[in-house]
Design brief:
It contains ten helices and ten strands. The chain binds manganese (II) ion.
């Protein structure tokens, strides 16, 4: 199982979620919302097998934490995975889009300088604006659009730009999310939960809840769950071929 976008440090009991993920042999990309959180999460994860920590600065907090962009740019040199970064154009955050864009450009430039990174990117309400930035920084690495919610036309553009996608149970419970997932190239899809933010009813999603996404993908791909799982595993191996301890 693969949870390519999980806020491990934000669960009430992160160590319990980590231990259970390791026990179930899940791959987990623990994304962080601030550079400081990267340090704490990296210490907590230690050398847990198949768990990686991404250094990020969430677009929702960039405006109040702009000073931390420097710190993230420095961290980019040390990490293989960068995120959660991106742009948020939803009504609550659209006023800060100019500063979000400035921060994102600095981080992407740092990724270019570091020789490219695997990026997990937020694009709510700002898909076109985010794709504009990706197109300006093609050497920043491999962009993985998390919980993509743009239009079919924006999806086509993302595919042309070489983007990958991570899709989760919450996204796949909506009709528009399922239609987007159906149109994604099957060799560029990974699963995620976005837990604990994403929920099922009152329960925060946990990494092994990606099973629900594997089931929906099997349906969309007209194959068995076993086949969807093996395709997803192949995708992860191709994406992270330079990270052999991963799968
Ligand atoms: Mn997230």
């Amino acid at each position: 199982m693969i949870d390519f976008h999980c806020h491990l440090d934000l669960y009430p009991d992160p160590r319990a979620v980590l231990a259970e993920s390791v026990h179930r042999r899940c791959f987990v990309l623990a994304v962080t919302t601030t550079p400081l959180a990267w340090e704490g999460t990296t210490r907590m994860v230690g050398d847990a097998p198949r768990v990686r920590v991404a250094a990020g600065l969430h677009p929702e907090v960039v405006a109040t934490r702009y000073r931390e962009v420097d710190r993230l740019c420095a961290l980019v040199r040390e990490t293989r995975y960068v995120g959660e970064i991106g742009l948020d154009g939803s009504p609550r955050f659209s006023a800060t889009l100019p500063i979000q864009r400035e921060a994102l450009r600095r981080v992407l430039a740092a990724c270019v300088e570091a020789g490219g990174r695997v990026l997990t990117l937020h694009s709510r309400g700002a898909a076109s604006a985010l794709l504009d930035e990706i197109s300006v920084f093609p050497q920043a690495g491999l962009p993985v659009l998390h919980w993509f919610s743009g239009t079919q036309r924006e999806l086509t553009r993302a595919v042309e730009l070489g983007c990958w996608f991570s899709v989760g149970p919450a996204m796949l419970r909506t009709r528009s999310g399922t239609q987007l997932a159906a149109a994604m190239p099957r060799d560029r899809v990974l699963t995620e939960t976005d837990g604990p933010f994403a929920r099922r009813g009152s329960e925060a999603l946990v990494p092994w809840d990606v099973l629900e996404a594997e089931e929906v993908l099997a349906n969309l791909w007209s194959c068995s769950i076993g086949e969807s799982q093996s395709r997803l595993r192949d995708n992860l191996r191709r994406l992270a071929y330079e990270d052999p301890g991963l799968t």
